[in-house]
Amino acid sequence: MRMLFPLFYSKTTIILLFFRLIKEGVAPNHRHRLGWTALMVAAMNRQHSVVKVLLEAGADPNAGDEFSNVYDTSREKGIHSLEGNDGEKERLKEMILVSREDEFSSRLSSRASFRGCTALHYATLADDPHAVRTLLEAGANPLQTNGLGHTPRAYAKEGEVSTVLQEWEGKFKELQAQREAAERRRFPLERRLKEHIIGQEGAINTVASAIRRKENGWYDEEHPLVFLFLGSSGIGKTELAKQVARYMHKDIKKGFIRMDMSEFQEKHEVAKFIGSPPGYVGHEEGGQLTKLLRACPNAVVLFDEVDKAHPDVLTIMLQLFDEGRLTDGKGKTIECKDAIFIMTSNVASEEIAQHGLQLRQEAEAISRRKLADNLEDVQKSDDIKISRQFKETVIRPILKAHFRRDEFLGRINEIVYFLPFCHSELLQLVSKELSFWAKKAKQRHDITLQWDRPVLDLLAGGYNLHYGARSIKHEVERRVVNQLAAAYEQELLPKGCTLRLCVQSDGQEERGAPSLRLEVVGEDSSSRTLDIRPPLNPEH
């Protein structure tokens, strides 16, 4: 398909042709089959009137080019459309080159990569101040990077275009900061985190308060922000770290670094952390942490199960936390004062869990004395606070005995405590897990799954203090998903049916506990219980 207009027409003819095409339903953001848009072509070829008309019609000034270069594109097209010999692939390459030069521009190198370039990149390459200003005034982002990581100004010659781009970069940064500040006021971090994490209000508030200080300039810029998350397994420590990274960075793959410290239990494994010194095997590869921090110095770094790390690794981390810099095996220093470091540990998890349960029992007793109508309303985590005395007399001695370094603990900005789930939070966890499987049932088998409150209460009883939310996940899989799988295998589930999950109180499952049953709900709201045969014993 040709572009929206051929560039060898006069400007008046092009505009009239474009209006006719728009009326016929051609979208202003329509792409050439090789990846570029009409706005990119117009910007590259100094078609000012066309640029203006396209923008007024709704063309996106920040759309990125999907064309890379002649050679990469011909290779990509060849994989999908040609299984032929080298001659056929050369003809394809020549065809792409002719199309690019004919419909886009012959002034650009056929070898250079243009993937991700916007119309502003092309107007800059054309050294066209008029088009650059028009695009910027229409909302083009001067800080947007192409596939090589370059902003438009990276391609500007010295002169008016470079000056205009630099001026607008400053304006854009200021406007962006204002928008982000307004968004933070409208939608605080606490609220964002609570959308993804059940319970742990105390932990969420502590972390959000520290990050708010950092975002608004009320922090010590000479040192990075350091957290230590304490609590049982499966209680939300890692998930909170991930959500902080997602909030701080749009690209979580780059902005979130996770280091499993169980891989650094031996002294010689320090080299994996920062890289081997010169003369040793693996010197050129660099360290796992240093390589990632060099790519993103302001990342959110998670040191998972830090209590398992070798003391020599802790020494390196102490330098990282204290000075905000790290020297790799090659002797190069990485500045990372803007990074956020989060450590998780199961140290003292038993003491924290037992103390949390005791606090909940005390809160429940108080609520009973007040004749509360609904106990769940008074079992929220933000009403349960660990006392300073417990932290100093119980937790700190355990941490000091394990890490054996006061200066290491002293560099931690906030020690965050994760408490066991209360009953209302367990009900939310069960509901979330059932909703996950209900969505799978609908997507994979067109089956609608329903349940009521007694089912939530029964499954919440499978909570194990030591395994946290994972114990709920396993309970749902064991008591619900196993039944669904068996019923499906035995062809008991009609296509497109509705299933209701119910508590069968008169059945005896194990030790007299009530069991769960599956019912097929008919169109007239009648139901029948599925007769699911138990699996045969392997001996039979």
Give the biggest beta sheet: 5 strands, parallel
Mean pLDDT: 84
The poorly predicted ranges are: 1-12, 79-83, 377-382
Q: Based on helices, strands and strand pairing, what is the structural class?
A: alpha/beta
Please give the oligomerization state of what you see.
Answer: single chain
User: Considering DSSP H and I runs of 4 or more, what fraction of the residues is helical?
Assistant: 40-55%
CATH structural fold name of the largest domain: Rossmann fold
Q: What is the second-level CATH architecture of the largest domain?
A: 3-Layer(aba) Sandwich
Q: Give the count of helical stretches.
A: 21
Strand content: 5-15%
What's the domain count? 3
CATH superfamily of the largest domain: P-loop containing nucleotide triphosphate hydrolases
CATH class category label of the largest domain? Alpha Beta
Shape: globular
* Strand arrangement, major sheet: 2-3-6-1-7
Q: In total, how many beta strands?
A: 11
Distance between the termini: 66 Å
Instruction: Provide the gyration radius in Å.
Output: 31 Å
List the defining traits of the structure above.
single chain; 540 residues; alpha/beta; Serine Threonine Protein Phosphatase 5, Tetratricopeptide repeat; Rossmann fold; Helicase, Ruva Protein, domain 3; 3 domains; 5-stranded parallel sheet; 4-stranded mixed sheet; 21 helices; 10% strand; disordered N terminus
